[in-house]
């Protein structure tokens, strides 16, 4: 039976992650204000988020190693401190270098949070609960994005830039206090961790985690299904919906709220699917990737501006990519021993954010080129330039899907060597239909026997 203490630890971890997500996504709401405040171009605005994500991605593997060595409590508290300092810096920044420094600190603090929170779950909960709780952690944290879309945006538009970012800094302060006072790394009676390994042993740990095909499959799964929603929520979704699609700020806030709600709703369903069908996880990832490509194609190929229902459909599909990317962490958990889960999780978490920072930069770069060459007289963020720039998604989705198929083959060969064979999906469905038909036939025979005098 799960102790009340375990649930408290989980709730504190979720709050810390919620705060991190609100810090991470806050710049996606201020893109137009930042352009005016810093007198910046599209590429320069994208650079804020690109550098933030670059720092985040670059720190994932080191953070994973550090979490395994020093525990979650120290890393989560340290991350909250860095994010608070970053938002304080950004609150008073008046030029691009000052703003960039703030986002770098936010990216570094954000990098220390999620892996540390995820590592707590298998230590405090039974294995059967882990897939669902991992999904719920990821999706509950997305409430932080809802905070940046609604309350933060309201403070920004009513009180101004500095009070809005000071509010985010204050949230980080609350997270630091709660983590230091209430969070524990290990349950009572759990054996103390082994002494921290030396540099050579740490390198070997990292090497073993990377060479594991399941870790590679997790990385490419995260790469493929996570980046598109991150690009949309963190940088280009807001300008695309307002300037290119002509929506008002209230409608955009409603769509962003729909994004969060859909992600939260999909999380438990995804977690249940993973727990019940662990041999079909990569198939689900590929299906989500295909749906993402189809949704973007429908919006970008639509003549003129897209109807609201189509934009809402795009938002829902992108939101599903959030819980879909969590499947990558389940690969890391199931294919690695407990002592290197943090390291493997860090490797997996690099994938989606590397893809996101590449996409964010390329979209801004293409928009600037099109604007400089006079491609459209509708302005920097007009619809036609956005159609071309956002097509970057298809390239990255194709690369990721191909890598998933390749790494999945390695995993299945490894599983076959251990005596676990994954039957083809169509064969599995046919077998289920046959068994279902046999059960119905047997039930009819039993009913007929009961009716026979």
Structure, described:
The chain is mostly helical. The protein has one domain (4-185, 201-421): Growth Hormone, Chain: A (Up-down Bundle). Helices cover 82% and strands 0% of the residues. It has helices spanning 4-29, 31-38, 42-70, 72-92, 96-111, 114-124, 130-141, 143-149, 151-159, 161-182, 199-211, 213-244, 249-276, 281-300, 308-325, 327-334, 341-372, 383-389, 392-417, 425-451. Helix 1 packs across helix 12. The chain is globular, with a radius of gyration of 23 Å. The termini are far apart. The relative contact order is 0.13.
Number of helices: 20
Sketch the topology as an H/E string, one letter per element.
HHHHHHHHHHHHHHHHHHHH
CATH architecture: Up-down Bundle
Low-confidence stretches: none
Helix content: over 70%
Counted beta strands: 0
Describe the secondary-structure layout.
Elements lengths: L3 H26 L1 H8 L3 H29 L1 H21 L3 H16 L2 H11 L5 H12 L1 H7 L1 H9 L1 H22 L16 H13 L1 H32 L4 H28 L4 H20 L7 H18 L1 H8 L6 H32 L10 H7 L2 H26 L7 H27 L2
Helix pairs in contact: 1-4, 1-5, 1-6, 1-7, 1-8, 1-10, 1-12, 3-4, 3-5, 3-17, 4-5, 4-6, 4-10, 6-7, 6-17, 7-13, 8-9, 8-13, 9-10, 11-17, 12-14, 12-15, 12-16, 12-17, 12-19, 13-15, 14-15, 14-19, 16-17, 17-18
């Amino acid at each position: 039976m799960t102790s009340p203490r375990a649930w408290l630890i989980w709730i504190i971890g979720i709050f810390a992650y919620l705060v991190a997500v609100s810090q991470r996504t806050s710049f996606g709401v201020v893109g137009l204000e930042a352009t005016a405040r810093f007198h910046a171009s599209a590429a320069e605005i994208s650079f804020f988020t690109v550098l933030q994500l670059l720092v985040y991605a670059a720190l994932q593997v080191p953070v994973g190693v550090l979490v395994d060595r020093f525990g979650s409590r120290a890393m989560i508290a340290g991350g909250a401190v860095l994010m608070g300092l970053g938002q304080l810096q950004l609150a008073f920044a008046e030029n691009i270098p000052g703003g960039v420094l703030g986002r770098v600190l936010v990216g570094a603090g954000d990098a220390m949070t999620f892996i540390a929170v995820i590592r707590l779950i298998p230590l405090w909960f039974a294995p059967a609960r882990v897939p669902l709780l991992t999904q719920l952690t990821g999706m509950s944290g997305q409430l932080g994005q809802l905070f940046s879309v609604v309350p933060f945006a309201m403070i920004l538009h009513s009180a101004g830039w500095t009070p809005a970012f000071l509010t985010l800094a204050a949230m980080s302060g609350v997270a630091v206090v709660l983590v230091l006072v209430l969070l524990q790394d290990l349950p009572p009676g759990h054996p103390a961790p082994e002494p921290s390994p030396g540099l050579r042993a740490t390198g070997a740990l990292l090497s073993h985690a990377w060479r594991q095909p399941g870790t590679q499959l997790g990385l490419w799964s995260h790469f493929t299904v996570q980046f598109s929603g991150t690009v949309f929520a963190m940088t280009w979704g807001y300008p695309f919906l307002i300037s290119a699609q002509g929506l008002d700020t209230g409608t955009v806030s409603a769509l962003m709220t729909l994004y969060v709600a859909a992600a939260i709703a999909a999380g438990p369903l995804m977690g249940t699917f993973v727990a019940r069908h662990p041999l079909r996880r990569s198939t689900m990832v590929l299906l989500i990737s295909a749906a993402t490509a189809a949704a973007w194609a429908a919006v970008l190929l639509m003549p003129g501006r897209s109807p609201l229902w189509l934009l809402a459909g795009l938002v829902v599909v992108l939101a599903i990519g959030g819980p879909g990317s969590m499947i990558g962490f389940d690969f890391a958990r199931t294919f690695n021993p407990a002592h290197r889960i943090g390291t493997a999780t860090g490797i997996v978490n690099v994938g989606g954010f590397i893809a996101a920072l590449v996409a964010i930069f390329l979209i801004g770069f293409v928009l600037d080129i099109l604007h400089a060459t006079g491609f459209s007289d509708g302005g920097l963020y007009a619809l036609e330039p956005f159609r071309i720039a956002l097509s970057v998604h298809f390239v990255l989705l194709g690369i990721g899907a191909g890598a998933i198929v390749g790494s999945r083959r390695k995993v299945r060969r490894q599983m076959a060597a251990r005596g676990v064979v994954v039957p083809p999906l169509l064969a599995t469905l046919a077998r289920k239909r046959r068994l279902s038909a046999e059960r119905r036939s047997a039930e009819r025979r039993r009913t007929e026997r009961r009716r026979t005098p």
